[in-house]
Amino acid sequence: MKEPAHIFLGANSGEGFFSLYDQLLGVRLDDLLILKGGPGCGKSSFMRAVAGELSAAGLETIHVHCSGDPDSLDGAIFPALRAALVDGTAPHALEPVYPVAHERCVDLTRFYDVGAVKAARGAIVAQADAYRAAYRDAYHALRARAALDAERRAAVHAAMDFDRLRRRADGIARRELRGGTGRPGREDRAFLGGVTHRGDLCRFDTADALCPRVYELSDSYGLAAAALETLRAAALSAGCDVLACPDPDRPQTLQHLLIPARGLAFLTSNARIPYPGEPYRRLRLDASALAGLSRAERSKLRFTARLERALRDEAVDALRRAKAAHDALEAVCNPHVDFGGVYALAAEEARRLLARLP
User: Fold this and answer.
1) Which end of the chain is more exposed for a tag (fewer CB within 10 A), N or C?
2) How do beta strands 31-36 and 103-107 pair?
3) pTM above threshold 0.90
Protein backbone atom coordinates (compact mmCIF):
# COMPACT_ATOMS: atom_id res chain seq x y z
CA MET A 1 0.00 0.00 0.00
CA LYS A 2 1.44 3.35 -1.05
CA GLU A 3 1.51 6.00 1.66
CA PRO A 4 -0.86 8.92 0.93
CA ALA A 5 0.33 12.44 0.27
CA HIS A 6 -0.93 15.14 2.63
CA ILE A 7 -2.14 18.65 1.70
CA PHE A 8 -4.52 21.37 2.88
CA LEU A 9 -7.07 23.19 0.72
CA GLY A 10 -7.90 25.79 3.38
CA ALA A 11 -5.88 28.10 5.60
CA ASN A 12 -6.45 30.30 8.64
CA SER A 13 -4.94 33.59 7.51
CA GLY A 14 -4.96 37.30 8.25
CA GLU A 15 -7.78 37.48 5.70
CA GLY A 16 -9.87 34.97 7.65
CA PHE A 17 -10.52 31.48 6.27
CA PHE A 18 -9.08 31.15 2.76
CA SER A 19 -10.40 28.31 0.62
CA LEU A 20 -8.97 26.50 -2.39
CA TYR A 21 -11.75 23.90 -2.39
CA ASP A 22 -13.54 25.44 -5.38
CA GLN A 23 -10.87 24.09 -7.74
CA LEU A 24 -12.36 20.61 -7.20
CA LEU A 25 -15.56 21.72 -8.93
CA GLY A 26 -16.23 21.80 -12.67
CA VAL A 27 -14.86 19.33 -15.20
CA ARG A 28 -11.47 18.73 -13.54
CA LEU A 29 -12.83 15.62 -11.79
CA ASP A 30 -15.15 12.97 -13.22
CA ASP A 31 -16.49 11.93 -9.83
CA LEU A 32 -16.67 14.25 -6.80
CA LEU A 33 -18.71 13.22 -3.77
CA ILE A 34 -19.64 16.28 -1.69
CA LEU A 35 -20.53 15.18 1.83
CA LYS A 36 -23.19 17.11 3.71
CA GLY A 37 -24.06 16.82 7.37
CA GLY A 38 -23.57 18.30 10.82
CA PRO A 39 -20.96 17.62 13.50
CA GLY A 40 -20.23 14.04 14.42
CA CYS A 41 -22.37 12.54 11.64
CA GLY A 42 -19.50 10.50 10.19
CA LYS A 43 -18.09 12.61 7.33
CA SER A 44 -14.46 12.03 8.30
CA SER A 45 -15.14 8.36 9.10
CA PHE A 46 -16.80 7.92 5.68
CA MET A 47 -13.82 9.46 3.87
CA ARG A 48 -11.25 7.44 5.80
CA ALA A 49 -13.14 4.22 5.08
CA VAL A 50 -13.35 4.87 1.32
CA ALA A 51 -9.75 6.12 1.15
CA GLY A 52 -8.57 3.04 3.03
CA GLU A 53 -10.27 0.70 0.56
CA LEU A 54 -8.84 2.49 -2.48
CA SER A 55 -5.36 2.76 -0.97
CA ALA A 56 -5.43 -0.97 -0.18
CA ALA A 57 -6.20 -1.56 -3.86
CA GLY A 58 -2.97 0.27 -4.72
CA LEU A 59 -4.44 3.60 -5.81
CA GLU A 60 -2.55 6.84 -5.20
CA THR A 61 -4.38 8.80 -2.51
CA ILE A 62 -4.05 12.42 -1.44
CA HIS A 63 -5.40 13.25 2.01
CA VAL A 64 -6.82 16.76 2.45
CA HIS A 65 -6.55 17.81 6.09
CA CYS A 66 -8.59 20.31 8.09
CA SER A 67 -6.86 23.68 8.42
CA GLY A 68 -7.70 24.07 12.11
CA ASP A 69 -7.31 20.43 13.14
CA PRO A 70 -4.72 18.63 10.98
CA ASP A 71 -5.69 15.28 12.54
CA SER A 72 -9.12 15.57 10.93
CA LEU A 73 -9.77 14.65 7.28
CA ASP A 74 -11.65 17.10 5.06
CA GLY A 75 -11.15 15.28 1.77
CA ALA A 76 -9.46 12.55 -0.22
CA ILE A 77 -8.37 12.71 -3.87
CA PHE A 78 -7.72 9.74 -6.17
CA PRO A 79 -5.88 11.10 -9.23
CA ALA A 80 -5.92 7.86 -11.27
CA LEU A 81 -9.74 7.81 -11.11
CA ARG A 82 -10.16 11.58 -11.44
CA ALA A 83 -12.29 11.20 -8.32
CA ALA A 84 -12.46 12.77 -4.86
CA LEU A 85 -14.46 12.96 -1.64
CA VAL A 86 -14.81 16.24 0.21
CA ASP A 87 -16.54 17.70 3.24
CA GLY A 88 -18.79 20.28 1.58
CA THR A 89 -19.98 22.08 4.73
CA ALA A 90 -18.96 25.50 6.09
CA PRO A 91 -16.48 27.14 6.04
CA HIS A 92 -15.71 25.49 2.68
CA ALA A 93 -19.28 24.87 1.59
CA LEU A 94 -19.51 23.43 -1.93
CA GLU A 95 -22.43 22.88 -4.29
CA PRO A 96 -22.37 20.93 -7.56
CA VAL A 97 -21.67 22.80 -10.79
CA TYR A 98 -22.55 19.81 -12.99
CA PRO A 99 -24.80 17.69 -10.73
CA VAL A 100 -24.31 13.93 -11.05
CA ALA A 101 -22.35 14.32 -14.31
CA HIS A 102 -19.31 15.45 -12.30
CA GLU A 103 -20.43 16.12 -8.71
CA ARG A 104 -22.93 14.50 -6.38
CA CYS A 105 -24.05 15.47 -2.88
CA VAL A 106 -24.21 12.71 -0.25
CA ASP A 107 -26.40 13.59 2.74
CA LEU A 108 -25.14 11.89 5.91
CA THR A 109 -27.75 13.54 8.14
CA ARG A 110 -29.90 10.48 7.33
CA PHE A 111 -27.85 8.57 9.91
CA TYR A 112 -28.76 10.84 12.85
CA ASP A 113 -31.36 9.80 15.42
CA VAL A 114 -33.08 13.15 14.96
CA GLY A 115 -35.19 12.96 18.12
CA ALA A 116 -32.17 12.18 20.33
CA VAL A 117 -30.09 14.97 18.79
CA LYS A 118 -32.88 17.49 19.26
CA ALA A 119 -33.14 16.45 22.91
CA ALA A 120 -29.49 17.53 23.32
CA ARG A 121 -30.03 20.91 21.67
CA GLY A 122 -28.88 22.92 24.70
CA ALA A 123 -25.41 21.35 24.73
CA ILE A 124 -25.19 21.55 20.94
CA VAL A 125 -26.01 25.27 20.86
CA ALA A 126 -23.54 26.05 23.67
CA GLN A 127 -20.62 24.21 22.05
CA ALA A 128 -21.40 25.51 18.55
CA ASP A 129 -21.43 29.09 19.87
CA ALA A 130 -18.14 28.50 21.74
CA TYR A 131 -16.60 27.08 18.55
CA ARG A 132 -17.55 30.13 16.48
CA ALA A 133 -16.42 32.56 19.20
CA ALA A 134 -13.01 30.87 19.38
CA TYR A 135 -12.55 31.21 15.62
CA ARG A 136 -13.47 34.89 15.79
CA ASP A 137 -10.73 35.35 18.40
CA ALA A 138 -8.24 33.44 16.25
CA TYR A 139 -8.91 35.58 13.18
CA HIS A 140 -8.73 38.77 15.22
CA ALA A 141 -5.21 37.81 16.38
CA LEU A 142 -4.16 36.71 12.87
CA ARG A 143 -5.35 39.98 11.33
CA ALA A 144 -3.33 41.98 13.88
CA ARG A 145 -0.30 39.80 13.23
CA ALA A 146 -0.67 40.24 9.45
CA ALA A 147 -0.56 44.02 9.83
CA LEU A 148 2.72 43.81 11.76
CA ASP A 149 4.12 41.33 9.29
CA ALA A 150 3.33 43.63 6.35
CA GLU A 151 5.31 46.42 8.01
CA ARG A 152 8.26 44.12 8.69
CA ARG A 153 8.28 42.73 5.15
CA ALA A 154 8.14 46.17 3.58
CA ALA A 155 11.34 47.18 5.38
CA VAL A 156 13.21 44.08 4.22
CA HIS A 157 11.86 44.13 0.67
CA ALA A 158 13.13 47.68 0.24
CA ALA A 159 16.68 46.36 0.84
CA MET A 160 16.37 43.34 -1.49
CA ASP A 161 17.74 43.23 -5.05
CA PHE A 162 14.80 41.48 -6.69
CA ASP A 163 16.21 41.88 -10.21
CA ARG A 164 19.21 39.83 -9.15
CA LEU A 165 16.94 37.24 -7.52
CA ARG A 166 14.85 36.87 -10.69
CA ARG A 167 18.00 36.47 -12.78
CA ARG A 168 19.09 33.70 -10.44
CA ALA A 169 15.69 32.05 -10.79
CA ASP A 170 15.96 32.35 -14.59
CA GLY A 171 19.31 30.57 -14.44
CA ILE A 172 17.84 27.73 -12.37
CA ALA A 173 14.93 27.44 -14.82
CA ARG A 174 17.25 27.21 -17.82
CA ARG A 175 19.26 24.48 -16.11
CA GLU A 176 16.42 22.45 -14.59
CA LEU A 177 13.55 22.92 -17.04
CA ARG A 178 15.19 22.36 -20.42
CA GLY A 179 13.06 20.68 -23.06
CA GLY A 180 9.31 20.73 -23.24
CA THR A 181 6.21 18.77 -24.15
CA GLY A 182 4.79 21.21 -26.67
CA ARG A 183 1.79 21.86 -24.46
CA PRO A 184 1.35 24.17 -21.47
CA GLY A 185 1.50 22.55 -18.07
CA ARG A 186 -1.42 22.37 -15.64
CA GLU A 187 -1.42 24.11 -12.29
CA ASP A 188 -3.03 22.83 -9.10
CA ARG A 189 -2.97 24.80 -5.86
CA ALA A 190 -2.77 23.53 -2.30
CA PHE A 191 -1.33 24.58 1.03
CA LEU A 192 1.37 22.41 2.60
CA GLY A 193 0.44 23.64 6.06
CA GLY A 194 -0.45 26.67 8.13
CA VAL A 195 -1.28 27.72 11.67
CA THR A 196 -3.30 25.05 13.49
CA HIS A 197 -4.27 24.16 17.05
CA ARG A 198 -0.87 22.43 17.22
CA GLY A 199 0.96 25.58 16.13
CA ASP A 200 2.71 26.06 12.81
CA LEU A 201 2.78 22.99 10.61
CA CYS A 202 4.17 22.16 7.17
CA ARG A 203 3.93 18.79 5.42
CA PHE A 204 7.44 18.81 3.99
CA ASP A 205 7.09 15.02 3.82
CA THR A 206 4.66 15.40 0.92
CA ALA A 207 7.22 17.46 -1.01
CA ASP A 208 9.97 14.96 -0.25
CA ALA A 209 7.82 12.04 -1.42
CA LEU A 210 6.97 13.72 -4.72
CA CYS A 211 10.25 15.50 -5.41
CA PRO A 212 13.64 13.98 -4.50
CA ARG A 213 15.58 17.17 -5.30
CA VAL A 214 14.83 20.13 -3.05
CA TYR A 215 15.93 23.72 -3.40
CA GLU A 216 15.58 25.24 0.06
CA LEU A 217 14.83 28.98 0.06
CA SER A 218 15.84 30.41 3.45
CA ASP A 219 13.32 33.23 3.77
CA SER A 220 11.55 34.84 6.73
CA TYR A 221 10.15 37.87 4.89
CA GLY A 222 8.31 36.69 1.76
CA LEU A 223 11.30 37.32 -0.48
CA ALA A 224 11.06 33.94 -2.22
CA ALA A 225 7.71 34.68 -3.90
CA ALA A 226 9.38 36.58 -6.77
CA ALA A 227 11.68 33.64 -7.57
CA LEU A 228 8.84 31.12 -7.22
CA GLU A 229 6.63 33.03 -9.67
CA THR A 230 9.49 33.07 -12.20
CA LEU A 231 10.03 29.32 -11.78
CA ARG A 232 6.30 28.60 -11.89
CA ALA A 233 5.91 30.42 -15.23
CA ALA A 234 8.96 28.65 -16.68
CA ALA A 235 7.70 25.22 -15.59
CA LEU A 236 4.25 25.76 -17.09
CA SER A 237 5.81 27.02 -20.35
CA ALA A 238 7.96 23.87 -20.47
CA GLY A 239 4.81 21.74 -20.24
CA CYS A 240 5.34 20.68 -16.63
CA ASP A 241 2.37 20.24 -14.31
CA VAL A 242 2.98 22.06 -11.03
CA LEU A 243 1.62 22.15 -7.52
CA ALA A 244 1.75 25.81 -6.51
CA CYS A 245 1.53 26.22 -2.74
CA PRO A 246 0.39 29.64 -1.46
CA ASP A 247 1.64 31.12 1.79
CA PRO A 248 -1.12 30.32 4.33
CA ASP A 249 -0.47 33.64 6.08
CA ARG A 250 -0.73 35.59 2.79
CA PRO A 251 -2.60 33.34 0.33
CA GLN A 252 -2.09 35.69 -2.63
CA THR A 253 1.66 34.89 -2.68
CA LEU A 254 3.53 31.63 -3.24
CA GLN A 255 5.48 29.86 -0.51
CA HIS A 256 6.45 26.58 -2.19
CA LEU A 257 6.51 25.14 -5.72
CA LEU A 258 6.49 21.42 -6.58
CA ILE A 259 7.29 20.10 -10.08
CA PRO A 260 6.88 16.32 -9.68
CA ALA A 261 7.62 15.43 -13.33
CA ARG A 262 11.12 16.85 -12.88
CA GLY A 263 11.46 15.64 -9.28
CA LEU A 264 11.95 19.24 -8.19
CA ALA A 265 10.66 21.14 -5.16
CA PHE A 266 11.37 24.73 -4.20
CA LEU A 267 10.57 25.03 -0.50
CA THR A 268 10.56 28.11 1.71
CA SER A 269 12.13 27.49 5.10
CA ASN A 270 12.86 29.66 8.12
CA ALA A 271 13.39 29.47 11.88
CA ARG A 272 9.64 29.22 12.49
CA ILE A 273 9.14 26.38 9.99
CA PRO A 274 12.54 24.78 9.26
CA TYR A 275 12.97 22.26 6.47
CA PRO A 276 14.10 19.05 8.24
CA GLY A 277 15.82 17.37 5.29
CA GLU A 278 19.08 17.82 3.45
CA PRO A 279 18.46 20.07 0.41
CA TYR A 280 20.01 19.65 -3.00
CA ARG A 281 20.71 23.39 -3.05
CA ARG A 282 20.12 26.21 -0.56
CA LEU A 283 19.44 29.87 -1.39
CA ARG A 284 20.03 32.18 1.58
CA LEU A 285 17.62 35.00 0.79
CA ASP A 286 17.43 36.42 4.32
CA ALA A 287 21.17 37.05 4.41
CA SER A 288 21.06 38.88 1.07
CA ALA A 289 18.38 41.31 2.24
CA LEU A 290 19.45 41.87 5.85
CA ALA A 291 22.97 42.82 4.79
CA GLY A 292 21.54 46.10 3.49
CA LEU A 293 19.80 47.11 6.75
CA SER A 294 21.16 49.30 9.52
CA ARG A 295 21.58 48.09 13.11
CA ALA A 296 18.54 50.14 14.18
CA GLU A 297 16.42 48.60 11.41
CA ARG A 298 17.46 45.09 12.43
CA SER A 299 16.62 45.86 16.05
CA LYS A 300 13.14 47.00 15.04
CA LEU A 301 12.65 43.80 13.05
CA ARG A 302 13.48 41.71 16.11
CA PHE A 303 11.03 43.71 18.25
CA THR A 304 8.26 43.32 15.66
CA ALA A 305 8.97 39.59 15.41
CA ARG A 306 8.42 39.22 19.18
CA LEU A 307 5.03 40.94 18.88
CA GLU A 308 4.13 38.70 15.96
CA ARG A 309 4.99 35.58 17.95
CA ALA A 310 2.77 36.73 20.82
CA LEU A 311 -0.16 37.27 18.44
CA ARG A 312 0.43 33.92 16.74
CA ASP A 313 0.44 32.23 20.16
CA GLU A 314 -2.87 33.94 20.88
CA ALA A 315 -4.30 32.60 17.62
CA VAL A 316 -3.07 29.08 18.36
CA ASP A 317 -4.65 29.22 21.82
CA ALA A 318 -7.97 30.26 20.23
CA LEU A 319 -7.71 27.38 17.74
CA ARG A 320 -7.15 25.01 20.66
CA ARG A 321 -10.34 26.30 22.26
CA ALA A 322 -12.15 25.85 18.93
CA LYS A 323 -10.98 22.25 18.71
CA ALA A 324 -12.06 21.55 22.29
CA ALA A 325 -15.52 22.95 21.55
CA HIS A 326 -15.77 20.98 18.31
CA ASP A 327 -14.68 17.77 20.06
CA ALA A 328 -17.33 18.36 22.73
CA LEU A 329 -19.93 19.01 20.03
CA GLU A 330 -19.07 15.74 18.28
CA ALA A 331 -19.15 13.89 21.60
CA VAL A 332 -22.76 15.03 22.08
CA CYS A 333 -23.79 13.91 18.58
CA ASN A 334 -21.73 10.72 18.06
CA PRO A 335 -23.88 8.42 20.27
CA HIS A 336 -26.90 9.29 18.14
CA VAL A 337 -25.37 8.38 14.74
CA ASP A 338 -25.83 5.04 12.98
CA PHE A 339 -22.17 4.43 12.11
CA GLY A 340 -23.03 1.00 10.79
CA GLY A 341 -25.04 2.76 8.09
CA VAL A 342 -22.21 5.23 7.45
CA TYR A 343 -19.67 2.44 6.91
CA ALA A 344 -22.07 0.42 4.76
CA LEU A 345 -22.56 3.43 2.47
CA ALA A 346 -18.79 4.02 2.40
CA ALA A 347 -18.21 0.40 1.34
CA GLU A 348 -20.83 0.77 -1.41
CA GLU A 349 -19.17 3.93 -2.77
CA ALA A 350 -15.71 2.33 -2.57
CA ARG A 351 -16.94 -0.64 -4.64
CA ARG A 352 -18.46 1.72 -7.19
CA LEU A 353 -15.20 3.65 -7.57
CA LEU A 354 -13.07 0.50 -7.74
CA ALA A 355 -15.34 -0.84 -10.50
CA ARG A 356 -14.07 1.98 -12.72
CA LEU A 357 -10.56 0.51 -12.72
CA PRO A 358 -9.59 -1.11 -16.04
Assistant:
1) C
2) parallel
3) yes
